[in-house]
Amino acid sequence: MKIVIINYGAGNIQSIMFAIERLGFKAILSNDPEEIKSADKVIFPGVGEASYAMRMLKQSGLDVLIPTLKQPVFGICLGMQLMCNKSEEGNTEGLGIFDVDVIKFSSKVKVPQMGWNTIYNLKSDLFKGISENEYMYLVHSFYAPICKETIATTDYEVAYSSALENNNFYGTQFHPEKSGDIGEQILGNFLKL
Amino acid sequence: MLTKRIIPCLDIKNGRTVKGVNFVDLRDAGDPVELAKIYSDEGADELVFLDISATEERRKTLVDLVRKVASTINIPFTVGGGISTVEDVEVLLQNGADKVSINSSAVKNPQLINDLAQKFGSQCVVVAIDAKQIDGQWIVHLVGGKVPTELNLFDWAKEVEERGAGEILFTSMDNDGTKNGFANEALAKLSQLVNIPIIASGGAGTIQHFVNTFIDGKADAALAASVFHFKEIEIKALKKELKNNNIEVRI
């Protein structure tokens, strides 16, 4: 199986590489459109600020490529947020794969949300064998509200989408690569799709 | 609900843990990777590695360690100690660290906080603040509490938040090593003052101290070293007791 992690200069890529290795696979880092197109599975990571990350994507033309991909694509954290219509962070236009706008938590709660929180209302093969209310590790200041593509929900100030799915596109707000054995199992489920 | 976090801290010198450890099942008590794995398996929510070595070789050794830890454990970890430039941080994050903790370098060059937050995001910037009370005022100290600064804890905390820190690790030098409990009054005040998570550090001696720092100190996370290393407190038992006190934890 060919697994490509999109390398566009944003994100803690090494942790995902290691998690994939622990699952017994190897991943390639690339921003080459041909390499990405030929992959069986594509992982779209992201950590940092949305408008900067989007600029980096545009520089390599990946903003055009990603929405056209046909194989399973997995956006993690900021990667998931960039797959939405737009983000309030830096007033950023997204890739429009998930039909929802990303907005900021209010100052009624501590921002960023940092730590372990539960996921529930699980509705996807991504969560095959995963019980309701398992803890996942999250670090984020912006969130995708509940929408028709929501496949997991988490509560922080409001109930919001901690995972999204649209056709071959999947996204999690949490970091499966940093969420213990259960997180690793979710990453493994994606690789088995 | 977001849980409160329990964070063991490992002091590292030349790639080895230095504080004595008391795990019977450890093959090599000085191996930080093996210790990290044990803590991770026991239910630690995060780990902090504090590098206290001062040799020229330190950076390379630390990077090797970060890679080994990142390849072994699947929970987040923070690396601190001697980090003073954007390049220092870049190499640690590239090798698998999730966050870095800066202390003296932030006091000496506050712009570093802005630069790191801008380049890597606030989520990976932890500002560690060591403070102790002098004439009733909480004063920020450097070099493990030896050197006082002009900074007031609360003013400095507010400033680091405004500059883009994602989290504050507050160690009370008055409490550190006493095993008499955390500085809950100052912690609660900090938690009210800033809107980023606060990690309580310094003073853990009993399970009740953790209960108190989450309830009275309003801390988001609690960090400790020796009580975990010497197995005076086991993480599983600690979390169970926190849950009995209606404190949300990951079990």
What's the topology here?
The complex is a heterodimer of chains A (193) and B (251).
Chain A: E1 3-6, H1 13-22, E2 27-30, H2 33-37, E3 41-44, H3 50-59, H4 62-65, E4 73-76, H5 78-82, E5 84-87, E6 92-93, E7 98-104, E8 113-119, E9 134-140, E10 142-145, E11 150-156, E12 158-166, E13 169-172, H6 180-192
Parallel strand pairs in A: 1-2, 1-3, 3-4, 4-13, 5-7
Antiparallel strand pairs in A: 5-6, 7-10, 8-9, 10-12, 11-12, 12-13
Chain B: E1 5-13, E2 16-17, H1 32-42, E3 47-51, H2 58-72, E4 77-80, H3 86-94, E5 99-102, H4 104-108, H5 111-120, E6 125-134, E7 137-142, E8 147-152, H6 153-163, E9 167-172, H7 184-193, E10 198-201, H8 207-215, E11 221-224, H9 226-229, H10 235-244
Parallel strand pairs in B: 1-3, 1-11, 3-4, 4-5, 5-6, 6-9, 9-10, 10-11
Antiparallel strand pairs in B: 1-2, 6-7, 7-8
Organism (chain B): Flavobacterium laiguense
Catalytic activity (chain B): 5-[(5-phospho-1-deoxy-D-ribulos-1-ylimino)methylamino]-1-(5-phospho-beta-D-ribosyl)imidazole-4-carboxamide + L-glutamine = D-erythro-1-(imidazol-4-yl)glycerol 3-phosphate + 5-amino-1-(5-phospho-beta-D-ribosyl)imidazole-4-carboxamide + L-glutamate + H(+)
GO molecular function (chain B): imidazoleglycerol-phosphate synthase activity; lyase activity
Describe the structure.
The complex is a heterodimer of chains A (about 190) and B (about 250). Chain A is of the alpha/beta class. Chain A has one domain (about 5-190): 3-Layer(aba) Sandwich (Rossmann fold). Chain A is about 25% helix and about 35% strand. In chain A, a hairpin with a 2-residue loop joins strand 12 and strand 13. Chain A is globular and about 45 Å long. In chain A, about 55% of the residues are buried. The mean pLDDT of chain A is about 95. By secondary structure, chain B is of the alpha/beta class. Chain B contains ten helices and eleven strands. Chain B has helices at about 30-40, 60-70, 85-95, 105-110, 110-120, 155-165, 185-195, 205-215, 225-230, 235-245, and strands at about 5-15, 15, 45-50, 75-80, 100, 125-135, 135-140, 145-150, 165-170, 200, 220-225. Chain B has an eight-stranded parallel beta barrel with strand order 1-3-4-5-6-9-10-11, surrounded by seven helices. The model of chain B has no long low-confidence stretch (mean pLDDT about 90). Chains A and B meet through helix 1, strand 8, strand 9 and helix 6 of A and helix 2 and helix 5 of B.
